[in-house]
Amino acid sequence: MNPFDRITIDPNVMQGKPCVRRMRVTVSLVVNLVASGMTKEEILRDYPYLEPEDIAQCRSYAPWAVDEEVMPLDGAAHAVSG
Prior knowledge:
Number of helices: 3
Order of helices and strands: EEHHH
Distance between the termini: 39 Å
Radius of gyration: 16 Å
Number of strands: 2
CATH architecture: Orthogonal Bundle
C-alpha cells in the first residue's frame, strides 16, 4: 500500500513537482503554509478544494522525501548548543 496515495508526480503538472491529487497545488506550498503558522482550518478555508487528509499527507511526505540522515560530527569543536 502506498502511504502517499494523494501525492502525485506528473511531468506535465507543475514541472513534475510533487502535487496534491494531480492538482496544481504542490506539497511544498502546503508545507510552507503549515510552517508559516496557518492552521489546518485556515488552509482548508483558503484552499477549499483541499481535504484534511491532503494536508496530513503533505506533512508526512516532506520529511520522507528529504530522507534526512543525521551524521555525527568529529570532535567537540563542532558541537552546537541548543
